[in-house]
Amino acid sequence: MADKQASRRGTTREGFAVLGVAIRREPWIFTVSTIGSVLFGALTVADAWVLGWSTDHVVLPAYEDGEIGADMLLAVLALFLGVAILRAVGIVARRLGAGVMQYRMQAHTRRAVTRQYLALPLEWHQRHPTGQLLSNANSDVEAAWGPIAPLPMAVGTVAMMVIAVVQMFAADLVMALVGLLVFPAVIVANLAYQRLASPLMTQAQQLRAELSEVAHESFDGAMVVKTLGREGEETARFAAQAERLREVNIRAGRIRAAFDPTLAALPNVGVLVVLAVGVQRVLNGSTDPGDVVTVAYLLTIVSFPIRSIGWLLGEFPRSVVGYHRVRSVLRATGEMPYGDQRATTGRTGARLQLEELAYRYDPDQPVLEDVTFTVEPGRTVAIVGATASGKSTLTTLLARLVDPDGGRILLDGTDLRDLARGELARTVAVVPQTAFLFDDTVRGNVTLGADVTDDEVWAALRAAQAEGFVAALPDGLDARLGERGTSLSGGQRQRISLARALVRHPRLLILDDATSAVDPEVEARILEALRSGDGDGDGTDSTLVVVAYRKATIGLADEVVHLEDGRIAGRGTHAELLERSPSYARLVNAYEQHAAHADEPADDAVDDLVEETS
Amino acid sequence: MSTALDSGEEIGAIATLRRGVRYSPELTEGIGWTLVLAIIASIGQVVVPVAVQQTLDRGLNGPGGPDVSFTVLTGVGAALAIAVTSWASYAMTSRLFTASERGLATLRIKAFRHVHDLPLLTQNTERRGALVSRVTSDVDQVSQFLVFGGLLFVVSVGQVLVATIVMVVYSWQLALVVWVCFAPLFMSLRYFQRKLSDAYGTVRRQVGVMLSAISEPVVGAAVVRSYAVEARTQARIDTAVGEYQAASTRAQGFTAFSFSLGGVSAGLANAGVLIVGIWLGIEVLPTGADLTSGKVLAFAFLVTLFVGPVQMGTQILTDAQNAIAGWRRVIGILETPADLVDPGPAGRTLPRGPIDVHLDDVTFAYPGGPPVLRDVDLAIAAGTRVAVVGETGSGKSTIAKLLTRLMDPSQGAVLLDGIDVREIAQSSMRRSVVLVPQEGFLFDDTIAANVRYGRLEATEEEILASAAELGLGDWVVGLPHGLATRVGQRGEALSAGERQLVALLRAQLADPDLLVLDEATSAVDPALEMRIGRALERLMTGRTSVTIAHRLSTAESADEVVVVDRGRIVQRGPHAELVTHEGSVYAGLHASWTAQQGASR
Predict the structure, then answer these.
(1) CATH superfamily of this structure's domain B172-290
(2) What is the pLDDT of residues B268-325, one digit of tens each?
(3) Which of A563, B324, B401, B556 could be joined to A389 by an S-S link, Cβ 3.0–4.6 Å?
């Protein structure tokens, strides 16, 4: 319990520290919005003073004398309107200021976090789940700067309370003391509410996430659910989760239902007590009726904004957690050092040498060990091996997505690590097994911003056997792909991804099982085009490294490197290895069963249509 | 057949509320009492101003001098009134929370159930995310609005009415002054609302763009690095972040400005009340003493009572736009017709035992698209093993979907044991016909739970027996926790091949009479591949089976091969016979398969 309290105090302190960061970063906007808020607070109080002053100097004298001073009425109008307009200015400054500050901080942080994502090596990415990184850049950023929204209001409220208290004391000491009891009561009630409600809110948040997970899973598995007629059971599963959420929401609602009227009643009761005390004091001549009005009015208007302090404190736990998560990304270190060598350019294939290459995720389990081989310019090498033999790791090393733990890779005689930043990408293109498409047009996805003519894009698409379906898209090269664009099948995505590599005329092209989802006939055409050396239509005789499963693909290679448990188990032509190595023969013949794949996702009707019309 | 999802956009705001209530009858249960409580709770707002007025006029400035006992009586009465109205407020809020949460849970569950009946779910996989958000965040939005906004709106309207009534009772002239001062605000409300709704619409769109940009350096980390497009990616993110920031700031500006207007109206109203009040009280109605100083002052309090709810109400109207839009989207789901009508208990039941299949002159086209299948006539004798082959887009997957009644043909009929599938009760259909999809989808649960999707009441022994039948007994035993092994999200703790094994085991336990297989294409470890082959072989024994084949070996081992080309059946017969038809589609396919394998020889 003591621990809990200590941590709560700790959270409050840290929450203020996080706000401090924001205030130091945006001091001017903070100042403007705080001035706006103080202005609002002061003028809200001033409203009461104007009313009190009008009561004593205008309303009551006018009634007593039975006549109206026009100048006095004008003063009343000017005072009320002036106060109201200034207060409106205060509101705009406060609200807009808080918004500007909050959104600016969010933008700063998002940019910094994504810069970090781009700077940190792939190895760092592999250690962190995708979902976590996405929420670091989104919801954690939002949570971290959440308290900025109520901040100026809270600061203004504090100012307003100080002014109100001074006013109340100026009006009447005794009534002020009575009225002052209301403030702590409101704050205590607020804290009690936060303490009771926030665990339920957290729980509801969690249940909401789980509910969404159930729906996601159930809809993703729709084929299974539907064809086995399990809709009823799935609905029961979803309903159970929805009902848990409902019960928590109702419980949270009941607590709120109890506290809202309590919070509203406290100042009202305060006003009644002030009235009772005030009447006594007016009777014994200690105070004026105007003072009673002032104090009562102050109580009514100040008690509502006091809640904003509660809102501010309530945001702190989320904010502190979010800020810590964001900061751990910003403080992550790890960088891939680059040399200053330029890559050889030209239209010939690159020469690739691997020397005693080693790579391991953990020391006892080498993924690659003592891998040495050379690929001469323009040659095609197939990397063949069972699952987890180290093939994909090898391709990431070749593209220098990670650096080896031992040995080195030479490209035209230069160690990859000595090449300047960006040089490698001008020479080497790697096409991964899982195609990644950007939320961009077909053109953007192929060029990635490179200065390439549409003719060249079409040539690359043609070589990748993607020309047909792209031409059939409603907007052709301008058709949007990605999450919110046209949906493509796995094979179509792979072909776009291949075109992206081909349009760059790489001197070394690495295909990591990059045509696995493509129709066999189509794949054969792609490989034939690549091998004949005019795959990209310019006659570049690229050096080709292919990770392959299919025998047809392997058969096209000049040489095969057979990997087994991270080591080279054999090298030679396909025919030689078949003859020489029983384990190679077993592996390749097992794949033979697989030789004829086709890509026809059972549930992708749109695709059928596109293919049909192309 | 429609693949469109009803967005509900054409439903008007009032109609949305009406239909919303129809789908969630809990919302209006006991609404009468809740309204009575709301009225009592609203009265609570005027207790203090009235007490102040009474105390000033009759306690302090009473005709016979200050009256202490009257003051005390007023105080006690007011305190009681506060207690009663607070309780009413508690009871009302709690009832509203309960009713709306219950109603929305019902709506959510109904929508979820209906989504499973939508053809969209299995046809357009990219839209699944949108379907999830309709049963989650869209409903949450309505819930937030109903319990916070909706409640406050009702209360605010109530308070404005009560404040107006009290003002009119005190002095209709001054009440008129207040309304006149607020008239410009009310009149500009619509304009601001439209502006705000546009501004927040832009914000929501920009959030989507930004999230997608932010995901690129994370999801596409390898591609961004290997193509060295860091600068471009960052530039895209910076733009998206900047545009979101600008949109949010703009929306915030509108909110701030529209909110500040209420305060100006209030100042105007206060001044107006005092000036007109004094003028009326002294010059116009001097004798009646209708408008005492206390009344004029009480009016100042009444004006604050009026301002608060007016500001609250205008704010809520803005939120309401979003909530109504969310509600519409959920209702849109429920009003998207399910294409497949289940004849229910009235439907016919398939007899047990291998099924004979007849596609009777079937044509199928997606809405607005060209026919995918044209005049397909195909009879498959009970117990036969058929392989359907053809190029991508030939229509072979469509045959699988028609046989399992994931879709109905546009023309013609699918007959199982001579019965049109549209007349068969869905329960019988699902009992007798099982589809094993390409990717055997697994739920984040144990192997046993996943297999039980095939037969819910299956005991552990029965599952193990089925595994043994498929030759998977040792595989199951060899798993870390046997049947209790958890498969992880979407089965990711297992390899692709193991996921297929679970899918086969699931099908075996379901014990169908017609088995429709969409052959998997993903590469699998050789040893596992052998296992899958053996298990498949045993699974097909004693049943009619139709396999959408991607491999030569499958076609070779089938009793009959059906060749589909451009939506038509062009050839059928045993493999050995079809191969000999030179120049035929199958000969071409076969040549390409063998070329693939033989390229190395």
Answers:
(1) ABC transporter type 1, transmembrane domain (1.20.1560.10)
(2) 888 888 888 888 877 776 555 567 777 777 777 778 778 878 877 777 776 676 677 7
(3) A563
Please provide the CATH number assigned to the domain covering A352-613.
Answer: 3.40.50.300
Sheet of strand B411-416, all strands in order from the earlier edge strand to the far edge: B371-380, B357-365, B411-416, B419-420
Q: What does CATH list as the number for B1-170+320-339? A: 1.20.1560.10
How far is it, in rounded angstroms, from Cα B194 to Cα A207? 34
Residue B345 is classified by DSSP as: G
A1-171+308-335: CATH class: mainly alpha
Interchain contact, B293 vs A63, CB within 8 Å: yes
Question: B217 CB contacts (<8 Å, ≥6 apart)?
Answer: A114, A117, A118, B224, B230, B233, B234, B237
CB contact under 8 A, B226 and A428: yes
Mean pLDDT over B365-387 rounds to 85
Q: B256 to chain A, minimum CA–CA distance in Å?
A: 5
Residue A81 tokens, joined: 């309107």
Q: How far is A306 from chain B (nearest CA, A)?
A: 16
In this complex, do B218 and A226 lie within 8 Å of one another by their Cβ atoms?
Answer: no
pLDDT tens per residue, range B80-114? 999 999 999 899 889 988 998 999 899 999 999 98
Query: Which pLDDT tens digit goes with each residue over B517-574?
Result: 887 765 566 677 778 888 888 898 889 999 988 777 788 888 999 988 888 888 888 8
Question: Does the reported pTM lie above 0.80?
Answer: no
What is the 8-class DSSP label of residue B4?
Answer: -
Among the partner-chain residues A63, A80, A597, the one whose CB lies closest to the CB of B270 is A80
Q: In what order do the strands lie in the sheet containing A365-375?
A: A365-375, A352-362, A406-411, A414-415
Q: Rounded to whole angstroms, how far apart are CA atoms B458 and B467?
A: 12
